[in-house]
Amino acid sequence: MKLTILIHCPDQSGIIRSVTTFVHQQQGNVVYLDQHVDKQAGVFFMRLKSEFEQEIDLTQFKEDFGQELATRFQMEWDAYTDGYKPKMAIFVSKYNHCLYDLLSRYNSGELAVEVPFILSNHKDLEYVAHQFDIPYFHVPVTKENKAEAEDKQLELLAEYGADFIVLARYMQIVSPKLIDVFPQKIINIHHSFLPAFAGAKPYHAAFERGVKIIGATSHYVTEDLDEGPIIEQDVTAVSHTHSVKDFIAKGRDLERIVLSRAVQLHVARKTMVYNNKTVIFS
After folding, report:
1. Helix, strand, or coil here: 34?
2. Burial (Cβ within 10 Å: 0-12, 13-18, ≥19) of residue 83
3. CB atoms within 10 A of CB 118
4. Of these residues, 226, 234, 246, 253, which one is catalytic?
5. d(CA 166, CA 91)
6. Is 197 helix (H, G, I), strand (E, B) or coil?
7. Of 38, 104, 116, 262, whose CB has the highest number of CB atoms within 10 Å?
């Protein structure tokens, strides 16, 4: 049995020794440990993986850990077993490039998740869901019915037991109603021109400006639009020889790659959020 523990707490001496000793006392063997100290904030972060020869009672492990260590060190923490595949709900609108990439990785076993359903505010990509034999729900969103639509989304997320949400080019603003239920569990992807080239045609605007690099950013969704904690980013060079069509094609390639990396990091429990930033473990 494998167990991953994520911890952040006020920086102080003795944390690593205390945690590793506790794991050893529970008949576990530490196989990986990475830690980081934010000197300015005085906060300690740690990710630890351990192996146990026999199955352990996770509920009891958490209770003992909380009583013996978490309270003493004022920890925010959690522990996860590697055997569980989190349920990833996908929200999408009309663009299919990120959706196909995620589903291909899921279908090949590269992405260790379950996909309980795909939800969209349009019917356009229902055929993709059928190709992968995944339930597809069309929930239209307008100014008039936004609250009702979000109630339906929450109902489906609860019914299917979704653990987190990926916005695979879902072109709707997610309100606090969803964010409060899935804090740091909604992953978005967009181009990296913001705030310079906001609007419906950012690649056209970037082309007119003659930019030399384009990029993509994946982040957790917060109430501040497109300003949540960044998980993953990447860029590629462009020049005067590239057309607007080239810009768009390169941008979509980046969006696929960056979103899949961000999802992989989240699923592997390698991300920790603090003060609207992320600590990403190797």
Report:
1. strand
2. exposed
3. 24
4. 226
5. 6
6. coil
7. 262
Q: What's the CA dihedral at 142, 144, 150, 151 to 10 degrees?
A: -140
Q: Is the pLDDT of residue 29 over 60?
A: yes
CB 119 within 8 A of CB 153: yes
Q: Determine the Cα–Cα distance for residues 187 and 220; give it in Å rounded to an integer.
A: 5
Strand-pairing partners, residue 48, are 5, 33
pLDDT tens figures, 169-209: 999 999 999 999 999 999 999 887 655 666 667 777 878 88
Write down the mean pLDDT value for the chain.
Answer: 92
With residue 150 as reference, give the H or E element that holds it. Answer: helix 146-159
66-73, Cβ contacts within 8 angstroms, sequence gap of 24 or more: 68/22, 69/18, 69/19, 69/22, 72/18, 73/9, 73/10, 73/12, 73/15, 73/18
Active site residue 124: no
Helix (H, G, I), strand (E, B) or coil at 203: helix
d(CA 32, CA 49): 5
| Amino acid sitting at position 264 | Q
Is 58 within 8 Å of 78 (Cβ atoms)? no
- The whole-number average pLDDT for the span 78-92 is 92
Contact indicator for 174, 97 with CB cutoff of 8 Å: no
* Residues 10, 16, 18, 24, CA torsion sign: positive
